[in-house]
Amino acid sequence: MAAPGENLRINSDRLWDSIMEMAKIGPGIAGGNNRQTVTDEDGEGRHLFKRWCDAAGLEMGVDEMGTMFARREGTDPDALPVYVGSHLDTQPTGGKYDGVLGVLGGLEVVRSLNDLGIKTKHPIVVTNWTNEEGARFAPAMMASGVFAGVLDQADVYEHVDKQGKKFGEELERIGWKGAEKVGDRKIHAFFELHIEQGPILEDEGIDIGVVTHGQGLKWLQVTLTGKESHTGSTPMPKRRNAGLGMARVIELVHEIAMDYQPDAVGAVGHMEVFPNSRNIIAGRTVFTIDIRSPEKEVLDAMDGRIREGIDTICEALDIQYKIEQVGAFDPVTFDAGCVKAIRDAADRLGYSHRNIVSGAGHDACWINRVAPTAMVMCPCVDGLSHNEAEDITKEWASAGADVLFHAVVETAVIVE
Ligand code: HGY
Ligand code: MN
Ligand code: MN
């Protein structure tokens, strides 16, 4: 396939301006974003993205999980499309770039092709996957998981948020439940541009992460049940303290992750205490353990040790426990051909690059199961993400989008 010329670049100002425009929707309280999935703010962001796609002459399709597919025609209508995108939903205290860079980077690829009057054999489809974050409704990468056939649509429709609202009902309420059957679309290749969300690229002064693998993940939601009682008059030996149990499990998760350095990670970010009153021993706690590793054997070993540890902790404290796996995916190896297209693009464009394993999960991790897939990463300041202070430079965004542009266009085959 003829490679694009090294002078083929995206429009850096337009990409940056679009990211800043999207950031105005669902603003956070500290300069980032709170545009959680299937909220009104998510709906507003979707409408803005659709307006931009309409202006770029793209045909919009929406499936039953609300995922948006904006199609630019190719010269061969029978050729499977090259998909490019990420997600527009954010964490409750999220940044402006996590996910958004990938969706608007994909849109910029199409806008640049339109500017240059370039036609490709394969159609190109810019994609916004619903509920990548999994913060409001578990699991993460929900819509791409249904698309890849690893999550059940009817089941995830019933998943509830902290207010007891159902995902399926909320998707319908914001008016973005589409008619397309999820997963019917066939994909020639999928590319996702994403910020690294870690410190490696910035620390090493490297422009581009060529993502060869993604680490595996498990989310274990734990419910501990003890007994509410007075914090003043209940003798220590008589307490059944679910709060103490949660504290000991959190410490256990950390210790087990530290046993598998340098790659394994583990933490508890979601914690709920009931009744959460200053002078009542916590009768019930609900929290989610997040463990990850590039090696499946390590992930499984951590899982097993944590379950044993929870049993021992609860026995000692005379409390009951329930463990539900609410999210999981094995470590991912991305498609060698797509990875090569990204690496060759970085070389051609003169950007420094290195292979990297994604620490975070991404829609690409699921789509890799149904189509050749790879990811491009750009650095982020201090490696910070899932924090409103998340930040990147315009140059990093442009370099990532240039590489995405070349990888997508080469794979879609320039016709004229
Ligand atoms: O949890 C993750 O890795 C992703 O950011 N949703
Ligand atoms: Mn993301
Ligand atoms: Mn994220």
UniProtKB/TrEMBL annotation:
Co-factor binding details: Binds 2 Zn(2+) ions per subunit.
Family named by the database record: Belongs to the peptidase M20 family.
InterPro entries, per database record: Amidase_Cbmase, Bact_exopeptidase_dim_dom, Peptidase_M20, Peptidase_M20_dimer
Superkingdom, natural source: Bacteria
Keyword field: Hydrolase, Metal-binding, Zinc
Pfam families: M20_dimer, Peptidase_M20
Required cofactor names: Zn(2+)
Peptidase M20 dimerisation domain residues: 215-312
Binding, Zn(2+) 1: 87, 98, 194
Protein name: Zn-dependent hydrolase
Xref: NCBIfam families: hydantase, PRK09290.1-3
Binding site for Zn(2+) 2: 98, 133, 386
One function term, GO molecular function aspect: metal ion binding
